[in-house]
Amino acid sequence: MSYSQFLSHVCMPHAVFLQLKTSSKSNAGSRLGHCSKVPRNVNLEKLRSGYLFPEISRHEFEHLQKNPNASLIRLGIGDTTHPIPDTITQAMAEHVRGLSTIQGYRGYGAEQGNMALRKAIAGKFYQDMGIKADEIFVSDGAQCDISRLQLLLGPNVTVAVQDPSFPAYIDSSVVVGQAGELEEETGKYRNITYMNCGPENNFFPDLSTIPRTNVIFFCSPNNPTGHAASWQQLKQLVEFAKANGSIIVYDSAYAAYIRDGSPRSIFEIPGAKEVAIEISSFSKFAGFTGVRLGWTVVPEELKYSNGFPVIKDFNRIVCTCFNGASNIAQAGGLACLSTHGYQALHNVIDYYMENAKILVDGFESLDLNVYGGKNAPYIWVHFPGSNSWNVFREILEKTNIVTVPGRGFGPAGEEYIRISAFGQREHILEASRRLKVYL
Amino acid sequence: MSLANNLSTSMISSSSSAFLAPTSFNASRTRSVSVPLKSLNIVKCVATPQEQQIAYKTKVSRNANIAKLQAGYLFPEVARRRAAHLLKYPNAQVISLGIGDTTEPIPDVITSAMAKRSHALSTLEGYSGYGAEQGEKAVRAALASTFYGNLGIEEEDIFVSDGAKCDISRLQVVFGSNVTMAVQDPSYPAYVDSSVIMGQTGQFQKDVEKYANIEYMRCTPENGFFPDLSTVARTDIIFFCSPNNPTGAAATREQLTRLVQFAKDNGSIIVYDSAYALYMSDENPRSIFEIPGAKEVAIETASFSKYAGFTGVRLGWTVVPKQLLFSDGFPVAKDFNRIVCTCFNGASNISQAGGLACLSPEGLEAMQEVIGFYKENTKIIVETFNSLGFKVYGGQNAPYVWVHFPGRNSWDVFSEILEKTHIVTTPGSGFGPGGEGFIRVSAFGHRENVLEACRRFKQLYN
């Protein structure tokens, strides 16, 4: 299979091809011709490698090149696999057909999103929390919203992230110019505060050891550890933010996976509206990873130090740097939040969580320390003393299973491997079998 | 846009306009008063610290770059005024020739492909999750062959997106805050506004209505809407839109050759906005890459919005040639790719299915019909203003008509037209100081609305 055939098969980013083909040495200019006099953005120079998930894809590709007959099982990139329930795709198809009619045609939508959808999100997820439709901004996904929030916040804020955490927080921070230099020895950016989250502290940072930063990124249920913060923990976090005058950016993309009654929204915590922004997504909730839909909540109460409401600036960013989520995706979103749609989606989530249980049971039977998998579709497995990229490579070599090395999520991810629970049941069962044999 | 939509937009926009009214917030910052303007009258003058009277504030400073912006983004402002007008005259038959929003239904060949993709997502074989952030291979290939066939632009140079406006901001994120930029004056406001947000500019200078550190390249009837490059200072980035929004001017091959040479001599990068290329009637280049040497100096951005009525569906693309290098030889495409992978997650797969259908022979033909319809609208509007004795520009190669109102303030003309004819247009000054004295009339609309609007214009200006 040629590289480009592989790409079309697994939708792998072409970035890798560029990286493999072109040299980044500075004499490339003289070989290739004219160089502009435009300086490269120094912030982008600070990024040491490609974004984590395209890197995983690259390893996958290379493995397949060497082992063309390998029966690969992908438990790496957290990509949903289950078809979207009919009721939702039918709504999208109907909306699409409407676009070919005079009555049903829609041009530009409000950049903040379709009001019916904003109301539905408010009603479904923020019912008793006093969050209004006006405070909800529909988007094309949390990854995009994270960067729009960084554009909003600007280069002169300090940020704290959990360690380990979803790489987009750190990478976007570097891109925007907040992060400072990368310290090679620690693998940490100088101006970012890393809040260690591990089994020893119940995956919640010891806030008494955390210096004040302007912004705190917090994800619960957590990617990659799977930990769902308790009400008590979030109360501490909100109080910490309040005492420090910080803004929490709370990533609740996996809230729908919670099984144990842990808070689903930061706004369940009193006082959170004055200190937090919440981002969320239909990706893992509805299998919309390719359809692209998410939302961000910016409460009107959230104010900058000069009293200016954050929501007004976020609105300006949304109106200037964005043009709204696809109206087709939004029609789908509305169907997701109908009674029927919502129930159907929870059946899919149950399916993924049954996958997670199988994987957790499998690892536990091998006497490995396993975390997560209970409130999130990620299993976080500890291989003490190991180098996680080596474990990743070994697992790939020996069992043809793609995972994600914990180090990709931050220095504290070293020694861990993240296994995602998306996939067809038979692949999950097969993966579990192979891992038992190998490990 | 429905009224409800407009009102919701206006609820956010109107309050943001009040807050972003020019001097009040800057003044309040220096006085350390953080009471919102609206509630000033409830502040008591007692000897207690002001903090105790006001709601909680974080200690996070507002991004000074965003504070530089003078008002809301142009088009929500226009929408706000439209909504306010409707509140005043609830029975008015408002005709919108303001925001360039497409109105005609999307051809069946395109929507049926999107419906098919939607249904397929409910099947095991047809379900797809994350797509390549750069876009689906088939779409990239089709774009390359349809638009750049013999221009040496390849599939891997093309990045599919959710639209040109979003791409403009992503490009700004790639460039960072330490680059200088030049824009046409007037120009599509997203170039300037995104530059301000990125921190490339200084403060807004009220006397000249320009942001410091941006090079404004005046484009007027006198210079054929092409800047006198001998008077333009070197900048790192040059934004250039042709066919132009708002003036409708289309640059000739000769002009673009000079532009490319200028960029080459100065080591600059052109960001060429070709969103209206298919509206070209004259024999002008549709892509910057028709000019030899352009691949070493230009990025091109484009959109399905105005071709396929995809303003709400969201699909566009950006071309970053592999030959385009930063000063240290690093390929710009590599950094753009990194931004696309980190700050974006691909255009909607359903929209991309529609895009692919647009690029089929049947789809291309269908798009040409829709474009032809809007061009006919444009012709009607041009003829109307010509017959009324106005100096009219554009309309030949773009769905915008640029009408001159010498000596008049364009927001005043906008208001007058709205008040007296219930027609929404766009004031030229919204596109930069070079737009003062002009009104942009967009040609999107149902035929009967365009005809009715022209009747009203004739009534007003006869």
From TrEMBL, chain A:
UniProt cross-references to Gene3D superfamilies, sorted A to Z: Aspartate Aminotransferase, domain 1, Type I PLP-dependent aspartate aminotransferase-like (Major domain)
Keyword Transferase on entry: yes
Source superkingdom: Eukaryota
UniProt cofactor(s): pyridoxal 5'-phosphate
Record keywords, A-Z: Aminotransferase, Pyridoxal phosphate, Transferase
Stored Pfam families: Aminotran_1_2
Ranges of residues in domain Aminotransferase class I/classII large: 72-433
Record keyword Transferase present: yes
Protein name as catalogued: Aminotransferase class I/classII large domain-containing protein
Organism: Hibiscus sabdariffa (roselle)
From TrEMBL, chain B:
CDD domains: AAT_like
Occurrences of domain Aminotransferase class I/classII large (ranges): 93-457
InterPro entries per UniProt: Aminotransferase_I/II_large, DapL/ALD1, PyrdxlP-dep_Trfase, PyrdxlP-dep_Trfase_major, PyrdxlP-dep_Trfase_small
Top-level lineage group: Eukaryota
Keywords linked to the UniProt accession: Aminotransferase, Pyridoxal phosphate, Transferase
Keyword Protein biosynthesis: no
The protein's required cofactors: pyridoxal 5'-phosphate
Entries under HAMAP family matching the protein: DapL_aminotrans_1
Protein name (record): Aminotransferase class I/classII large domain-containing protein
